[in-house]
Each structure stands twice: as C-alpha cells, then as structure tokens.
Write a structure and sequence with these properties.
Chain lengths: ~130, ~130
DNA sequence: CCACTAAGAATATCTTAGCCT
DNA sequence: AGGCTAAGATATTCTTAGTGG
C-alpha cells in the first residue's frame, strides 16, 4: 500500500466498485482505471479532484500517502484536543485576529530560537487595540 | 487567486524567487514555471510533491485551493497554508510556549465573542518573562 | 533581469479491441 | 465478470531560443 495506485485500488474496493464502474463514474474507460492502479498513468488535476471527492479523501493522501510529513503532523495534532479546539477556532476567526495569532506564534518561535544565556528577550508584539 | 497557477505564483513571490530560480530548485526550465503559473501545464505527482515540500503547503492547497469540497472543518483548516504553518510551529514548540499560544488564541476568541458596543475589552494575557 | 511565447522533440494519456483468469 | 495489455491516435509536457517589458 505504498503507491497512488495501491491507495486508489484500496479505495475502489472499499466501495465495492469494479474498474468499469469506477470508470463510468469518472467518465473514463476501465483500462484507464487499470492504468492508474498500476501506476502506469497519472491523472490530471481535474481527475485528482474527482477522485478525492468521490472517495472523500485528500489529494495529499492519494498522491503522497500517509507518510507525507504534513499529514503526519496533522494527524498528531488532531489527536490533541487542545489543538483541535485551537485550530478550529483559528480557522473561524476574522482575518485580522488570525493574523494577530500568527504574529504571536512567530514571536514565540523567534524567542525560542534566540534563547541563549544572558541574551535579552525580544519585546512581544503589540496588540491591535483598534 | 483562484487557480493552481495563481497560488504557485503567490508562493513563489513570497519566497522572493524568480521563475528561473524556482526552476533551478526544481530541476526544470524557467519556461516550465511560467507555464505552471499560467495554467498551461500541470505538474506530475513528483513535481506536485516537490512543490508542496518546497513551499510547505499541502498538495490539496496547491491543486484545489481553499474551496476544496471536503466539508469537514478540520480538512478546510488543513488546506489553509496559514493553518499549516501554525500547526507545524506549534507542534515543534516547547510545551510551555505552546500553552502560551493556546492561551493567546483563547483570549482572541473571547474578545471576538464579546465584541458588543460599549463593552470593555478584556486584557491580553501576560507574557511569560521566565 | 524578469516573464512570456513559439516550435519541435520527447512523453504521457486515453480508447478500443483483444486476451487471460 | 473482472482485470490486464497492445497499438495507435491524441494530447500534454519540456526545453531551447527568441521576444518584449
């Protein structure tokens, strides 16, 4: 289960579809599906989008699998309830507030980096009092 | 900012790279980058992976943008480069710093909620001076 | 310097039809 | 049925070289 084709096949079987049926759903010949599954072809953006929608997975999963570092980090993060809450929140925030948070993160990151004995800490960013 | 090309261009400019420089980093000609950005070409899986890694975003973001039809909020968030950045950052942070950021998020949330005319804004959280 | 375009060669893709299990 | 493969037509992709801002 290490390639795009493997993952596609797995998803197709999970849905109990034949290559022909899947092809019909996607508007391509069954041989095209066969090729996808054996990594003989690479679907273009439109097809990637269709596949991801049909199987309700991310394109990242299809193309890169679970080993994508982004995905891994996301999964780790999603297992942390605090994270889940914070990130959902961040997502729903007004643009301005979100930027504020990102700035704050940037600030903390810089501070962590520059943490050497005897060194002065940078000032925190100013809050928008608006 | 609605297409793969637009997003690629935006990411490239954010990194202050010319098409030529980006091409060099990716092992393709500058004209190829130009084509990508004007949606005249579609990079294959390998290039999609390289681009996502280089710019530290998901392939979903590159290919589908934020309007990806995956409905779940977590997945929307997953397609937001700002979110991806925040998540990666938080993930690598010391526990203490992470809590600080989460507190800050909490503060901003409360402030957003309570934004009614005439109402006093809460004070921002204190920074750990350590 | 930077970005875009044209032309041509090299590749990749898709379908149909046939074959195997 | 279900899946794989070949062959040929189609379409895409990439580079080089050249144009223009």
């Amino acid at each position: 289960m290490d390639t795009f084709g493997d993952r596609l096949r797995e998803l197709r079987k999970k849905k109990k579809l034949s290559q022909k049926e899947l092809g019909k759903l996607l508007g391509v010949a069954e041989s095209t599906i066969s090729m996808y599954e054996r990594n003989g072809r690479q679907p273009d953006f439109e097809m990637q989008d269709k596949l991801a929608n049909l199987f309700d997975v991310s394109i990242d999963y299809l193309v890169r699998g679970k080993e994508s570092s982004l995905k891994k980090q996301a999964e780790e993060a999603y297992n942390d309830p605090d994270f889940q809450y914070a990130m959902r929140s961040l997502n729903g925030m007004e643009r301005e507030s979100k930027e504020e948070v990102l700035n704050f993160i940037e600030y903390v990151l810089q501070r962590e980096k520059g943490r050497k004995p005897g060194q002065r800490q940078p000032n925190p960013p100013r809050f928008n009092k608006e």
